[in-house]
Design goal:
Layout: H1 2-15, H2 28-40, E1 44-45, H3 80-85, H4 88-95, E2 100-106, E3 131-136, E4 139-141, E5 147-150, E6 153-157, E7 162-165, E8 170-172, E9 178-180
Antiparallel strand pairs: 1-9, 2-3, 3-6, 4-5, 5-8, 6-7, 8-9
Helix pairs in contact: 1-2
């Protein structure tokens, strides 16, 4: 019972610091990512911490990608906002192209759970608008925070907000606590193609 109370208090405290309004470009990644990982994805506190290698991440079925690969040096014009909010160029410059496991545009945001590990109940994604998805690989530290997402996805919906989703464990550097996302109803069954240089 005390674990549940601690988890609820932690979530309430973190959710109270989050703005759900229009994305402020200087805070887009940290604010939106924290909102999704805590308030919207019902993140639970782990009893003794969870190493990234121990986290069940799931593997999409081996289905051929349904979309063409995206060139990082010459992306489509409508990818610009997603590249900006997801800090794609910065992550690639610091960590190399392998930091991105998959990248692509889907026709309907509400189909994102077919491509990345989501609960399917994320309110930001309940839209029929197109969306860009960037599936990152490894530890991604959120700017202006002590939060590290392991294998997160960044999703930007046309005409809506965008940010990081904790599709894997979320680590708090200060406290050492690792939170795991709420289980997904079904594992992704479609692949995002890896990016091209």
């Amino acid at each position: 019972m005390s674990r549940v109370i601690v988890a609820l208090l932690t979530l309430a405290a973190l959710a109270g610091c989050v703005s759900y309004g229009p994305v402020d470009k200087s805070r887009a990644v940290a604010t939106e990512g924290l909102a999704v990982a805590t308030a919207e994805s019902s993140v639970e506190l782990a009893d003794h911490g969870l190493a990234a290698s121990e986290a069940p991440t799931g593997t999409p079925n081996t289905v051929e990608p349904l979309m063409p690969p995206v060139s990082l040096s010459n992306p489509p014009a409508d990818a610009g906002r997603a590249f900006e909010l997801c800090l794609v160029r910065g992550w690639v410059e610091r960590n190399g192209i392998d930091v991105i496991a998959g990248l692509g545009r889907i026709d309907h945001a509400n189909e994102a759970a077919h491509y990345v590990r989501l609960t399917g109940h994320e309110p930001e994604l309940q839209s029929d608008q197109p969306a860009w998805i960037v599936q990152f690989r490894g530890d991604i530290r959120m700017p202006m925070s002590n939060t590290v997402y392991v294998d997160p996805a960044c999703i930007v919906v046309r005409g809506g907000d965008g940010g990081f989703f904790g599709t894997g464990p979320v680590k708090d550097i200060g406290s050492g606590v690792t939170r795991t996302p709420q289980p997904v109803v079904a594992e992704p069954d479609r692949l995002l193609p890896p990016p091209q240089p």
